[in-house]
Amino acid sequence: MDKYYAIYSRKSKFTGIGESIENQITLCKNHLINKYGEKIKDQIIIYEDEGYTGYNTKRPKFQQMMQDIRDKKIKAVIVYRLDRISRNVSNFCNLKDELAKYEVDFISVTENFDTSTPMGMAMLMITSVFAQLERDTIAERIKDNMYELAKTGRWLGGTTPLGFKSLKEENIDIDGKKRSLYKLEPIPEEVKTIKLIWEKMLELKGLNKLESYLLQQGIKTRTNHNFTRFALVTILKNPVYVKADANIKNFFKNLGATVYGDDASLDNKHGLIAYNKRLETPGKAKVKKEIPEWIIAVGKHPGIISSSQFIKVWEILANNQNKRMRMPPQNTSILSGLIKCHYCGSYMRPKLLNTYTGDIRNFSYLCELKDKSRKKLCKCPNLNGIKTDQLIMLKIKEFTISPTKVTPILKKKIHEKRMKDYSKEPHYNLTETEITTLAQKVISNYLTTFNHLDVVNKRTLLKLLISSVESDGKNLYLNLVGSLSGLKKP
After folding, report:
1. pLDDT for 285
2. CA 467, CA 192: separation in Å to the nearest integer?
3. Which of 226, 274, 321, 354 could join 239 in a cystine, given CB atoms 3.0 to 4.6 angstroms apart?
4. Is 466 helix (H, G, I), strand (E, B) or coil?
């Protein structure tokens, strides 16, 4: 089988100028033609990724090229420059090892590297290390500059917190790049909501009760959604709302945060700005950092909540969290996270009762919207949890599922596994007959042992077999493999 020369090109975003995808490809083609002659044109495959970072390998054409390498279709990979294929030393080392495994050469046109020679391989590794060192140094310098800006109390961007709007003040240069500086300015109507949230939290002392109160009163977020517990925690723990004074400075210092600001700036008028609260990694979701990594400074905006109120709410949240952590798990419901209210579409969550059936604690399924709004926005009757689960388990035993329903799912999972685990030999090439046999075993094993599974695995199985479950308090509606059937109320 003839092998091909793979030209790989990448650019983080489309600009139409500079090292465009087209320019990269042209230079790589010219390099191959100069080395092997015009006949090489018929042996070139182009892989283009535009709009993707080089920090990770989650790029569609890159993954396709790697699969072709594993299928032994590629003789060499050619790039315009090393950082087009990877900006991460770890990723590049993995790539280098895999190329070597399949005897694929790597050529960087502008850097004159060719791994078919020992010297080319050594120089390639050295350059990749320095490339990441330069990237990390630039990132560190920019971060240091941002720290200095944070100390000035400037709003550095991001989602503007409820109660404020962001006003542009001036532009400055950071590493030769223009950056805008902003200041937070209060929005009177939203400030009223913030004050109410703190007032009711101090009164009700619980997120569930606070969420229910706001729901009943019809108080919504800036985007006209109901407040969730997550949204409320985010607000209640945000230092942007608290007035700067000596008490709040000591509070955050005792938590381990770095706090900037002398006594003169702690005027009990301005709010705080917290920086470095989240870890931002290209291609990944933001991760919250621990408080000792926070940098806190006095902001340019007015504070809304007194330090005493702010600290009391933090203590309430901490105490409630400790109580939840001490409570042993008692939820045995198998429809948790699956069953919904037929009327409003909200999930029906299990609520534990103070009675028992044998050794099992009784519970009910009740509509979340009904519970949170105290029956104001929905009045769906509750369900007996144990009887509902028993009815579902009886129905499960009646299922007859053709392997043809499961086979496509297994094939998809096998393909996903191959793509994810590309560093190993492709050993998932199962025949259609083997997959069908495997599907039959999966069905037989799960359905005959359902009663012996733990709660988590029972829920997992149900989510594979049942796309939705709804209740109107009188009937259960199960969407079973495309059919709708009604079951009488337990």
Report:
1. 53
2. 42
3. 274
4. strand
Alpha helices for 327-427 (secondary structure H): 368-372, 385-398, 403-420
Which token pair is 360? 């099992």
pLDDT tens digits, residue range 198-235? 999 999 999 989 998 998 899 999 999 999 888 999 99
- Strand, coil or helix: what is 463? helix
Nearest Cα neighbor of 317 from 233, 397, 241 is: 233
Asked if 338 and 383 count as a contact pair (C-beta separation under 8 A), the reply is no
CATH topology identical between 4-136 and 168-326 = no
Distance of CA 233 to CAs 197, 219, 237, Å?
11, 16, 6
Cβ-contact 40, 5 below 8 angstroms:
yes
- Look at domain 4-136 and name its CATH class: alpha beta
CB contact at 8 A, 378 and 344: yes
Taking the alpha carbons of 230, 235, 239, 245 in that order, is the dihedral positive or negative? negative
Single-letter amino acid code for the residue at 213: Y
Whole-number pLDDT of residue 332: 77
Please compute the mean of the pLDDT values over residues 168-182 and round it to a whole number. Answer: 65
pLDDT average, residue stretch 460-464? 73
Backbone angles phi, psi at 486, to 5 degrees: -105, 135
Predicted pLDDT of residue 189:
95
* Helix, strand and coil in the chain, % to nearest 5: 45, 25, 30
Domain residue ranges in the chain:
4-136, 168-326, 339-488
Averaged pLDDT of the chain: 79
Instruction: Report how far residue 181's alpha carbon sits from residue 302's, in angstroms, rounded to the nearest whole number.
Output: 17
Radius of gyration of the chain (CA): 30
Q: What are phi and psi of 13, to 5 degrees?
A: -155, 160
CATH class held by domain 168-326: alpha beta
Structure tokens at 18: 């500079």
DSSP 281-346: -TTS--EEPPGGG-EEEEEEEEP-B-HHHHHHHHHHHHHHHHHHHHSPP----SSTTTEEETTT--
* DSSP label at residue 452: G
Give 196-203's long-range contacts (Cβ < 8 A, gap of 24+).
Answer: 197/232, 197/235, 197/236, 198/236, 198/241, 198/305, 198/309, 198/310, 198/313, 201/232, 201/236, 201/313, 201/316, 202/309, 202/312, 202/313, 202/316
The helix (H) or strand (E) run that includes residue 268 is none
Q: What is the DSSP letter of 380?
A: P
CB-based contact 162:189 (threshold 8 Å): no
Distances (CA, A) of 465 to 93, 210, 393, 416: 42, 37, 12, 20
